[in-house]
Design a protein that fits this description.
It is a single chain. With 620 residues, the protein is of the alpha/beta class. It contains 23 helices and 13 strands. The chain has four domains: 75 residues, Gyrase A, domain 2 (2-Layer Sandwich); 181 residues, 3-Layer(aba) Sandwich (Rossmann fold); 132 residues, no CATH class; 172 residues, Isoleucyl-tRNA Synthetase, Domain 1 (Orthogonal Bundle), CATH 1.10.730. 54% of the residues lie in helices and 10% in strands. The protein has a five-stranded parallel beta sheet, with helices on both faces. Strands 1-3-2 form a three-stranded antiparallel beta sheet. Strands 7-8-9 form a three-stranded antiparallel beta sheet. α4 links the parallel β4 and β5. The longest helix is centred in the N-terminal third of the chain and has 25 residues. It is an enzyme of class 6 (ligase). It is found in: Cytoplasm. GO terms for molecular function: arginine-tRNA ligase activity; ATP binding.
């Protein structure tokens, strides 16, 4: 039962009658007072009426009193009624309210290029995507999680080119496959870049020469570091690439053969791409992240989906010649009203969507259109959510605009870009092409090392070490609003005593173990109402608020709303429990009242943590 919602309805009914304003308008503007002591709920009058010369009085089942404070009408709730209704209906899934009309939702996330290990940037994408999947499912929606395998681009072709020079080796035993491929990719790419810049130096002007020499020196230093990791591979690659008459032509040939579905090339590329995916899933499995479907970009080419979209775009009235190739003019064929409907900022000039290269091969943007159709059709989706970094904002807008121009306005409106800021690492720039990155696995192992040391120091339980690591990493990501950058600080995120995933798990274990020792028969009619004051009353109100907070986190796709709430809730519970005993209280009614509150704390933390992908631990 959502007691807070019912209390707000009661408050809205009384106020709407008093000021002659629609009840729904009043309800939607009710908020929480900014300061303690002003009440439990608040309505800023200017949000619903210009008539500030009014006062409201009365009471109801939940509303104990109204009070006018400046421009606000504040309400104090009847804590006994709140207590009775919350704990009379406290079920196993308390707070995880289901929507009235579930939707079919596709969430595509992570979708890293299968050429090197996942790095810390992918970590944020994967955790945000997986958390959305969990929250939306807990809210009652039917959710399909998908990973888009970019196996047809230039980067994969460079990897395959390097592997060809090594005579298509197998990964050595005991070596993680994506790490092995990442090394070969970085070596191949660096050698290609050194070769290219060496060629350019032959015709460089005096002003260009110094800059190019400096760039080559930097690449040579990177190459030396890569060679130290595997001299045999590096020397074979260097010898083969430097002797190649035209490496670029060979790479383009790999792309062309794969795109047209040459059987030999298909077998080779898919084999190594799947090795990379094995490595990805080994990493993601540590955080309990999985996918319902893997979609390969190449399949869209081979089954004709991309060709169909190309034909549709070529028939479009918005088709224009752009820099020697075909494109869709998005700016002059979509008006401001449609832009607003498609969440395209006012005044932003959309660049044309280029459909193909000058050689006639299609670009990833066109393939994204075909893939969007597939996501909607395969799952019969009402909504498709793409979890992609903020740098892809314009391509995502182009995608929505293209869908609209092609005659699919509902797809365009229901394609959502879940944008997120990047993860910064102090003192280090990442570059996959140069083999310079902090991998997902390195982050995980470093966090694990620090967590283990802290748990040992406190003589804690190491049986669930991996779950503590998972909570530390997940909380660090989802506690920050997606549109803000994250700075990864290992010591901060592994703090067992405040504002971290392990801290929430510790608080849950504390509540769980109190309840494990309860021998009293719990009956809401056998409580002491005078106990519901101070911190205990605040705990009660927060328990009552949980269904609303969970629903908002899921509906607004804002997991940080839930993490902030759970952290504040844990702080409040720990502050109270450090001062007052529960099971040792001799007065039966007081003891039962306190036990009920702990029971509410346990339910809120258990369901809140589970919906974020964090395991509630019974021992720490």
């Amino acid at each position: 039962m959502n007691v807070i919602r019912e209390a707000k309805r009661e408050m809205a009914r009384v106020i709407s009658q008093a000021i002659n304003v629609e009840e729904e308008k009043v309800f939607n503007n009710i908020e929480y007072p900014s300061k303690e002591g002003l009440g439990d709920l608040s309505l800023p009058l200017p949000s619903v009426t210009r008539n500030l010369n009014i006062d409201v009085s009365g009471r109801g089942k939940y509303v104990k009193s109204f009070r006018r404070d400046g421009i606000f009408i504040n309400v104090e709730l009847d804590e006994v009624s709140v207590f009775n209704d919350v704990f009379s209906s406290l079920s196993e899934d308390y707070g995880l309210e289901k929507v009235d009309k579930p939707k079919r939702i596709v969430v595509e996330h992570t979708s890293a290029n299968p050429i090197h290990p996942l790095h810390i940037g992918h970590l944020r994408n994967a955790i945000l995507g997986d958390t959305l999947v969990r929250l939306l499912r807990a809210r009652g929606h039917l959710v399909n999680s998908r990973f888009y395998v970019n196996d047809s681009g230039r980067q994969v072709a460079i990897l395959i080119y390097g592997l060809s020079k090594l005579n298509y080796p197998e990964p050595p035993a005991g070596v993680k496959k994506d790490e092995w491929l990442g090394l070969i990719y970085a070596m191949t790419n660096v050698i290609l870049e050194i070769r290219q810049i060496t060629q350019e130096l032959k015709n460089a002007s005096e002003s260009e020469y110094k800059e190019k020499i400096s760039k080559r020196d930097e690449l040579v230093a990177v190459a030396q570091g890569l060679r130290e990791r595997n001299e045999e591979y590096f020397d074979v690659l260097s010898d083969g690439i430097m002797k190649e008459e035209d490496p670029e032509k060979v790479i383009l040939d790999i792309i062309e053969r794969y795109e047209r579905g040459d059987e030999r090339t298909k077998q080779i590329v898919r084999k190594y791409v799947n090795y990379a995916l094995e490595g990805f899933m080994e990493s993601l499995g540590k955080l309990g992240i999985s996918f319902d479907v893997f979609d390969y970009e190449s399949d869209l080419l081979w089954n004709g989906d991309v060709r169909k979209v190309l034909e549709e775009t070529m028939d479009s009235r918005a088709r224009v010649n752009y820099k020697g190739t075909w494109a869709l003019d998005l700016e002059n064929f979509i008006d401001e009203a449609v832009k607003e409907e498609l969440r395209i900022p006012k005044g932003l000039e959309l660049p044309p969507l280029v459909l193909m290269r000058s050689d006639g091969t299609t670009l990833y943007t066109l393939r994204d259109v075909a893939y969007t159709f597939k996501k909607f059709s395969d799952f019969k989706a009402d909504v498709v959510i793409n979890v992609i970094a903020e740098q892809q904002a314009v391509p995502q807008m182009q995608l929505r605009a293209t869908l609209y121009l092609l005659g699919y306005p509902e797809h365009a409106k229901n394609l959502l870009h879940y944008s997120y800021g990047m993860v910064s690492l102090q003192g280090m720039r990442m570059s996959g092409r140069l083999g310079r990155y902090i991998s997902f696995d390195e982050v995980y192992e470093k966090v694990k090392e620090v967590v283990e040391a802290k748990v040992r120091e406190k003589k804690g339980n190491l049986e669930e070490l991996d779950e503590i690591v998972n909570s530390a990493i997940r909380y660090a990501i989802v506690s920050v609003s997606a549109n803000k950058p994250v700075t990864f600080n290992v010591n901060k995120i592994t703090n067992l005593e405040e504002n971290s995933g392990p801290y929430l798990q510790y608080t849950y274990a504390r509540a769980y173990n109190i309840l494990a020792k309860v021998t009293d028969h719990l009956d809401v009619s056998n409580i002491d109402p005078l106990e519901l004051v101070g911190e205990k009353r605040k705990i009660l109100i927060m328990i009552a608020r949980f269904p609303e907070v969970f629903a908002k986190a899921a509906d607004d796709m804002s997991p940080e709303v839930l993490t902030v709430f759970l952290r504040q809730f844990s702080d409040l519970f720990n502050a109270w429990y450090d001062k007052e005993r529960v099971l040792q209280e001799k007065d039966e009614k007081k003891r039962i009242t306190r036990i009920f509150l702990v029971k509410g704390v346990e339910a809120v933390l258990r369901n809140g943590l589970k919906s974020l992908g964090i395991k509630p631990l019974t021992k720490m």
